[in-house]
Specification:
disordered C terminus, 3 domains, disordered N terminus, 18 strands, five-stranded mixed beta sheet, four-stranded mixed beta sheet
């Protein structure tokens, strides 16, 4: 049988231009502590519901699963939720799907913000399966229902929270230890998680700290001694044993005065439980009046005697009283806070005021707090540092202006950019028309099944490449606009500095990313704009 001529291929009327073949769909799953008894909210059940929904919609393509386990819906500071937001901002997600609205959150204001502002601004479709909510297909009363359900979800969370607090305070009165982690020096009894037993590894360290302090050693000297003996800090020890799961909470494994003082203030080491010291109000932990603390004696084995603890408190109070008697002259603002570092050990430099001259200088704390002789860096006076930065900025001013002009020129080329995007969209439309007509040509016998599959794949690849290019061009345009705005702000900050001759923290934050000092008062400055030559400079001090 003769094949039909391809000249008879007809194009269907131009459809609306689409920029994606599949909807990249992210699954968000959340399980809080209070939901653990509800099998309907289990992680497995939520995943099953979301998988089934996506399976029923062939145009949806999974774009990752984000699971926050054991985190309340009243906060949006959840690791996986924040990771999902980053992926949304990166443009790798088109749709977010949840089992129901309560999985997204139980805070009416923040939940409303994401549904009504954040998702629409990022062109994200939001679907709550069991609540029959789809922001691409909202019914007349859906907005009202979303608001009402968010109110109910928040009220539920508040009610559960009150019940948990009440139960926890009753457990405290009964002498049960209710914290999730054991206090440094103790372990949780394997037979009773609400009872403490002495930890043979860390209890001697606690006792040693109290004895050293009562014997006259300062908290700073105690910290140095512990570092010298390679004793892990409480947070590092907890992380190694699995009590602490977030590495962000660990720190640098270096004892400091504050950590030592915190141990010295804990009466738990005398064998009594002192709990309920704080109260959570509006998501903030605030200290309770001492009269409302819950104290139960003889709940566990003591590490130190009450007499040793009392002597430590007497010395702590004496040191506080001595500090209060000093005349305090407020420090001026530290405009380099968070910007200045030691070039030898990498730590932040400490700002200090000389008691006699009143001059400010910066120095590394390594020798005082971490390890004697551990850093060879010296000090640098603030007025010297300001002179160095002013000279360097005058030399770098032309670099900033040149880069600003480059981005200005890029923005001026927007007509060409718009023309390219228009051309690409026309190209996408043409290929979508060809793609739409393929099936009809297959049915009519104009093309074979093998040709259909090959041509369908080819047209799809052409569309995907064009869409990718559109995203690249739009991203380049947005980047150029943002960079130009940033350079304009830096230019204004530089003009203000040169006109006034005075540095402020706002000017430093706008222009400087990092300052590193070395032995011999050598200074390296990293600016928030590209350097065209070495920025390392030397003071005359």
């Amino acid at each position: 049988m003769a094949r039909k001529s391809r000249k008879n291929i007809t194009l269907i009327k131009e459809p609306e231009i689409k920029t994606a073949i599949y909807i990249r769909t992210a699954q968000y799953i959340r399980l809080s502590v209070e939901d653990s008894h509800n099998k309907g909210n289990s992680i497995e059940n939520q995943k099953l519901i979301l998988d089934d929904y996506i399976a029923q919609h062939p145009n949806m393509k999974p774009a990752g699963t984000y699971i926050d386990n054991g985190i309340s819906g009243t906060t949006f500071k959840r690791p996986e939720f924040q990771r999902m937001l980053d992926d949304i901002s990166a443009g790798s997600i088109d749709c977010v799907i949840v089992k129901d609205l309560s999985r997204l959150g139980r805070n009416i204001i923040d939940t409303g913000f994401y549904i009504e502002r954040f998702f629409p601004e990022h062109k994200i479709r939001f679907i709550a399966v069991n609540d029959d909510i789809d922001t691409d297909n909202l019914k007349s009363n859906d907005s009202l229902m979303i608001c009402l359900k968010n109110i109910i979800n928040e009220a539920y969370a508040l009610d559960i929270g009150k019940k948990i607090k009440t139960q926890a305070r009753q457990a405290m009165r009964e002498g049960q230890y209710v914290s999730a982690r054991p206090r440094y020096g103790y372990l949780k009894d394997p037979n009773d998680c609400h009872k403490l037993i002495v930890n043979p590894e860390t209890a001697p360290v606690v006792k040693m700290i109290f004895e050293w302090f009562v014997g006259g050693m300062s908290t700073n000297e105690i910290a140095l001694q512990l570092v010298a003996r390679n004793i892990p800090t409480p947070s590092v020890y907890g992380y190694n044993k699995g009590y602490i799961t977030s590495k962000k909470s660990v720190g640098q494994n270096s004892w400091v005065s504050r950590t030592v003082r915190n141990i010295l203030e804990q009466e738990i080491y005398t064998g009594k439980l002192v709990q309920g010291k704080t109260n959570t109000i509006a998501k903030k932990q605030l200290p309770r009046d001492k009269s409302k603390w819950i104290v139960v004696e003889n709940t566990h084995e003591a590490i130190i005697s009450q007499e040793l603890f009392d002597k430590a408190q007497e010395r702590l109070q004496a040191l506080k009283n001595k500090s209060k008697q000093k005349t305090i002259i407020p420090y001026t603002e530290n405009i380099f806070k968070g910007k200045i570092f030691c070039g030898h050990c990498g730590r932040s430099l400490h700002r200090h005021r000389d008691s006699r001259s009143g001059k400010y200088h910066y120095y590394c704390l390594t020798n005082q707090r971490y390890k004697r002789g551990g850093c060879e860096n010296g000090l640098i006076y603030e007025n010297e540092l300001l002179q160095v930065i002013m000279s360097s900025m005058k030399a770098q001013a032309d670099v900033l202006i040149e880069n600003k002009d480059i981005f200005a020129a890029s923005i001026q080329s927007q007509p060409q950019t718009n023309a390219e995007i228009k051309r690409l969209k026309t190209y996408i439309s043409q290929n979508q028309n060809f793609l739409s007509s393929l099936y009809e040509n297959l049915v009519n016998g104009i093309i074979s099944p093998e040709e259909y599959q090959t041509m369908r794949r080819d047209y799809g690849e052409k569309i995907s490449e064009a869409v990718k290019r559109i995203h690249e061009v739009e991203k380049q345009r947005t980047t150029a606009e943002n960079e130009y705005t940033r350079y304009c702000e830096m230019d204004r900050a530089l003009e203000l500095l040169f006109d006034s001759g005075k540095f402020t923290k706002e000017i430093i934050d706008k222009l400087i990313s990092k300052i590193v000092t070395y032995k011999g008062k050598r200074v390296e400055i990293t600016y928030n704009f590209e350097n065209e030559f070495e920025s390392g400079v030397q003071t005359n001090g």
